[in-house]
Each structure stands twice: as C-alpha cells, then as structure tokens.
Amino acid sequence: MGWRVLCLCMFLGALFMLFNAQNAFVSCALTSQLQEEITRINGEGPYIGLVIPNSFELNPLLQNPAYTPSENIIDFAGRRFRFGSIGDKPVILVMTGLSVINAAITTQLLLSIFNIEGVVHYGIAGNANPSLNIGDVAIPQFWAHLTLWSWQRYGEGPSNTLPLEQNGDYTRNVGYLKFGDFMSNVSWGDSFDNLLNRIWYQPEEVFPVDGIPEQRQHALWVPVDYNYYQIATRLKVYNSHYKKIELF
C-alpha cells in the first residue's frame, strides 16, 4: 500500500511540475508586439546589464542622481527590466531575487533578449576577512559557488571514493568540511563525531558557449572579466559625507 501511495504522489508531483512548466512557457512567450519593442530598444544599445539581488540594493541606485531613467520598461517572465543611463553609458537594471537559481535565470534572460556588452553584479555581501568593515567596498577578482557538495555517508572517510567519482562527476580534490569539527555544547573528550559526517566541495560544471556541446569543463574559482576588473581597480567613490574614497 505504501509504495502505491508513494508512486501516486510522485506521479502527481511530476504532473504538477509539467503543468507549471507549460504555463511558464506560455506566459514567457514573446509576443510580436514585445519583439518589436525589444528590437527598437536594442537599437539604442549596447547596454551594461546591472544584475541586482533585491530592493534593498536596487532602490539606492534608482534614487541616485547619477542614474537617469528612460521611459523604457519591459516586464517579462516575472522580471522588470528598467532602462536608463549612468553618465553617458546605457544600462539595464533588473532585480533577480535571492538565490543562485534566480540570478542565473535573470542573467540568461538579460543576455538572450537584449543587446548586452557586459554584466555587473553588485550587492550586500558577508565577510570572513577581519580587515574589512561594514560599509567597505570589495571588488573580487574571482568568485566561487560553494554550495555544490557531495555529501559523504556516515562511516566513510577521506580515503573512500565518492559516488560517481570514477566517472568524473565528483572529486575529492577541492576539500571537505567535517561537521564533527564544529560540535558545540559538548563536554566530554577531545574529539567528536557527527552523523552528518562531511561534505566535499565540488567545482561547477561549465559548458562554454564556444565549446563542444555536452562536453563539460570544471571550474571552482571563476575569474571576473579582466577589463572590467582593471577599470574597477581605478574607481573612486564618495560616501554619504561626499568624502572621496580610494578603493585601491
């Protein structure tokens, strides 16, 4: 009886996902009117795309006198693409929402639909570097997605092969986090164990646009665009008291 209920739940879940996917496809279809509008707007480009996580980070830019909005706004696929300029450079502002998935979807829409010459992401960030303080501006040279793991079952250790490791799907080359090393509120012994065991950090699978289809590459640290990084190292900003601050 139990497996029948499970199968029924799986079937209903798959049906629900298919229904949502079909609805998403229909709702995201480009109408001829919207295509004409996009073609017209793209003729005013190319643009720098500014990918912004949420309203806390978007609103200060919208209210900044350095940003000049245009009359063009396109609502598509649950996103609002705002057009304007910063200085003499045409820009498109779009809020992604939180999570890597939202950021990836929004950025891909931006690149696929509009005439984009570059993408800049900015926002609030956490910090593990004690030399940085609240309000400091940090410009990374590399970034990594550190929530892609292979979770090793309890009882296995660093010398045990990960599932699918021999196929090249997972690796032990990056390193791991052992939950037992971070136990708290314990008072016995000098070493502790945890049923969660350890997670192994994994590199991203990358399929370059100029590569061979379905032939993957792996990357843990992804460099930012070299030219944009060089420009960023020469930037100067002003704080709320209009005091000039050298970023580097």
UniProtKB/TrEMBL annotation:
<keyword id="KW-0732">Signal</keyword>
<dbReference type="Pfam" id="PF01048">
    <property type="entry name" value="PNP_UDP_1"/>
</dbReference>
<feature type="signal peptide">
    <location>
        <begin position="1"/>
        <end position="21"/>
    </location>
</feature>
<dbReference type="GO" id="GO:0003824">
    <property type="term" value="F:catalytic activity"/>
</dbReference>
<dbReference type="InterPro" id="IPR035994">
    <property type="entry name" value="Nucleoside_phosphorylase_sf"/>
</dbReference>
<dbReference type="InterPro" id="IPR000845">
    <property type="entry name" value="Nucleoside_phosphorylase_d"/>
</dbReference>
<feature type="domain" description="Nucleoside phosphorylase">
    <location>
        <begin position="48"/>
        <end position="141"/>
    </location>
</feature>
<dbReference type="GO" id="GO:0009116">
    <property type="term" value="P:nucleoside metabolic process"/>
</dbReference>
<protein>
    <recommendedName>
        <fullName>Nucleoside phosphorylase domain-containing protein</fullName>
    </recommendedName>
</protein>
